[in-house]
Amino acid sequence: MSSGFVVLPDRPQAERLFPRVPLDGARVIPHASGRPWIVGRWPADAVTVVESGPVRLVVVGDAPASRARLAQTAGRITGPADAARALVGLRGSCHLGVSLPDWSRFQGSASGLRRLFHTRAGAVALAADRADLLAALTGAGLDEEALALRAVCGLQLPYPANARSLWSGVAALAPDHALEWDADALEEVRWWQPPKPELSLADGVAAVREALLAATHGKRPENGRLSSDLSGGLDSSSVCFLAAREDPEILTFRWGEAEEGNDDTVFAELAMKELGRAEHLVVPQAELPDMFAEAENPVSAEMPSPLTRATARIRRSVALLAEHGSVRHLSGHGGDELFTPMPGYLHPLLRRRPVTALRHLRAHAALRRWPLRATFAELLRPSSFAGWWAAEADVLTEPPPPLRRAALGWGLGPIRAPDWITPAGAELARAALRRTAATASPLAANLGSHQTLVVIRSNTSTYRLLADLYAERGIALEAPLLDDRVVDAALRVRPDAHAGPWRFKPLLAEAMRGIVPEPVRTRATKGEFGEDVRRGLRTHLPALLDLLGPDSRLAGRGLLDPDALRVRLTGPQADNSAVQALESLVGCETWLRSLPPSRPAPKD
Q: Which fold has domain 4-190?
């Protein structure tokens, strides 16, 4: 394993675990006692540590404050209560930790982009930012039910089910919780609550703009270059122009288009002209690997990846960025999740402002071709979070519902098993969905805010794997739109104030007034890349079917029917659902093949 870190409590028993951490050449940050606290591998500038007497304060990732401010914060900490308050005040996109004598605390980000997992090795409770680190340290076995969830449900699977660890006995910490060690005890403590959505669009614009300025401040690295996506869309353009305010010589990057009707090029070139001192790297389609090329190569040892169709293309892009000197790359990921609210906001709006809700409903139905009467009936139908998960478990193997259907429930849409999944695999996944129904709870009282958080935390799991591909070439991938400060600011705005179909991402567009060029800021179209996928699948389908044949790991575990898969993929495709399910299936197969042979748990 090449990256990640493990967090150990300040106990003699934990010190004995240090030699077993599966990271060659690991760095060590000690507690004040001298015992190891954080053991891991990271770039030299990726961790900030400050000390004040027996207090240790650490930031792993992009620090949301200067070293001087962090030192002042550490100096005000005299006990656990002070530590908890101090960490809440250091919002951003990073891991945060505080160590006091015989007590410590560690947490990730509310977006889920910075995760934590925990387990026990004998009497010692320990944590890590990667579940596979803890599995290797403790000898944990594969959780077959969790694997079945990934193979069966794929990208359809929303948070929290998609955040479940793939290893038995290794638990995933909810992003809004922190871990606190008090002597030998470990407790999960909630540190973040979603704000109430009370702001108007005008007030929200000011808050989002301020948060974005903070999230993109100080991104220029001391050594090496800063780069940014600049596709021509509003999300990447916003991040790029914000960063260019401090680093006008930024390196921009985009792929050429395969679709004749894709107008990304027009808007990207308009944006490039406004960045006169920047260097622009545009990679033509002919110089990019096909979609689904080299799909047999795994992305990460941490968990299966749904990025399999674009893995080779991403790796080629990252190599080019590294050749041009980039060491930090900014993406626009998170813009769709934050600034295009899911339609669940119509539920509370109908009860609070029925006339406004009906106006929104009619507009959505006309634009997206929802069946108006059926959609209105679903809005009137009461539902519960647990009930939604239980219902999806019940109909997992039923035919999918009509495509033109609003996602008005507590998830992101219907979950259905592909017809190449075996009955045994479907039953394993069904049991896992029912377990989710019994244990999970809504992420926010307001259904609109809940859906926004679901889609954010569902997708940050994938973005973490994307960051691994950049890290292979020594580039830190960051997503400023998923900074906790930006997430908080967007969630404070009433969804109905910026969710209507009349304007494209009005909250972000208004926040970027005067920063992003007007033609790009007011763009109302979105690029299409379907032809890339169709062409790549035609070329590489034989190799994919061979990878997922009778000798595959998934077939050997009784989850996959290779004959049914072949029939489904070689026949006509009415939509892209089979291709999306295939991506996740390939990710599960390549991940299983990359696992080292199982070994017994070490003796304590």
A: Glutamine Phosphoribosylpyrophosphate, subunit 1, domain 1 (3.60.20)
